[in-house]
Amino acid sequence: MNRLVDQLGRLPGLGRRSAQRIAFFLLKSSTEEALALASAIHDFKTDLKICGQCGNVADVNPCSICTDTQRDPQTILVVEHPGDIVQLETTGQYRGVYHVLMGHLSPLDGIRAGDLNIEPLLERVTTQDIQEVILGLHPTQEGDGTAMYLADQLHAAGVNVSRLARGLPVGASLDSVSKAVLGDAIAGRNPMNAMQ
Ligand SMILES: [Zn+2]
Predict the structure, then answer these.
(1) What is the pLDDT of residue 172?
(2) CA of residue 55 to ligand 1 center, whole Å
(3) Do 80 and 40 fall within a single domain?
(4) Same domain as 142, residue 90
(5) What DSSP letter does each residue of 88-120 carry, written as one string?
(6) Same domain, 33 and 79
(7) Residue 29 lies in domain
(8) What is the distance in A from the centroid of ligand 1 to the CA of 155?
């Protein structure tokens, strides 16, 4: 029991009490249910890779988007989750590459810049010839806060920053809006100016 609680307690956002609640839940669950979780974690780690370039989840590293020579490697669209890329790709409107943060800043939940895939993004814009970074964070309070933080860092690195247009309904996640709205948001993206 202690071993499991220790492992669960290492997960982001889970303190020891939450870890204990999950452990008790698993204790009461059927063996089948509990092992389904274990095998999902096992398969997830053995079958999937993280693209070393953009942080997307893929079956090859680097991923097929990063290695697609038809795409513009000088434009990076920053998203929170791999699922956002799937949605954006359905619009067929975007021909640049991506960068996946794996979440957003959330000081209340203890999620800080160091917990996200931010440092590799800054490294990309300083070591590669990047023309524009488009921020495609979700239109939520945390997404906005993360966008402001990133814009600041990216401006300091001397790169043009824009964000998806505000046709997106406030509070919506990218995977719940229609293709058309998402396509408009890419086409009508707004430049983000450096703060004075
Ligand atoms: Zn990639």
Answers:
(1) 66
(2) 6
(3) no
(4) yes
(5) HHHHT---EEEEE-SS--BGGGTB-GGGTTTHH
(6) no
(7) 2-47
(8) 23
